[in-house]
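Worked Example 4.2. Consider the chain below.
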Amino acid sequence: MNDSANSPRLIALLGPTAAGKTALSLALQAHLDTDIISMDSALVYRRMNIGTAKPEAEILNSIPHQLIDVRDPWHSYTASDFATDALTLIERNHAQGRPSLVVGGTMLYLQALLQGLSPLPEADPQIRKSLEAEAAEMGWPQLHQRLASIDPVAAARISCNDSQRIQRALEVHAITGQAISDLQQDRTAPSLRVLKVVLSPPDRSVLHRRIEQRFAQMLGAGMIEEVRGLLDEPEIHPALGCMRSVGYRQVCQYLSGEFDRTECEQRGIIATRQLAKRQLTWLRKEADALWVDPDQNDLHSRTLAQANDFLS
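Applying the procedure from the previous section yields the following structure tokens:
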């Protein structure tokens, strides 16, 4: 990544799920007078509101947000899509003399943005449908073994239960005949100046309590009814990538009768904790990031001061 003085300036507010990024992002947005560019793989989907912890409608209507509600749930949105869309917005802001503010926890999106786009093919619905049918029959771990024989490098960094990334890697190979890990090496990084701020409680138990409280609040706010309504749409089914995301997968399983509501909540909390753990593992590799505690008294003033130093 080239970070010359004339490059667009980007503040990336990162952190695990439930860390409190939304509240801090609103303070930064008001201070910077710029749009909030969402970097969340679930917020891109329309009608998926409660289970994604999407900001309330009055916030979205009064404060400029980008890359929220840009896809119907049955359409895919890839890291490459994000990188293309976000870079367009960043360059627009730069032309207007404004910095950019990216907020979220989908670290694969950040990697695609900062390291550049790979020449990967567009999604192929027919191939995806075929892979989903195979997964329904034999399970994603079995398809992960197939990936390991085709592309051991990609398989080594993809969990055997990460259905979306397994599917994408196999899809790319089916389309191009090449390993996705080979294609991903051919990329050009954009020229950006970046300040990374990671919002995360230093005590893991604090984050766990936040996750428990938020998931319970989601269920209380009508997440089950939201998922039931989504599944009533003819194009939406539990095998869709968006419906396999944390929380939605567990509610789909509950609605299909696999377990009761209490176990649905417990499984949703566990899955969210596992997501946060993966996010933190990735975030710890960001050696140049500023880490801040969401519970510190001077959180906003300290973060705004860091932003001012970066932009000056």
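The chain has 14 helices and six strands. Residues 9-117+187-311 form a domain with the Rossmann fold fold (CATH 3.40.50.300). Compare this with Example 4.1 before moving on.
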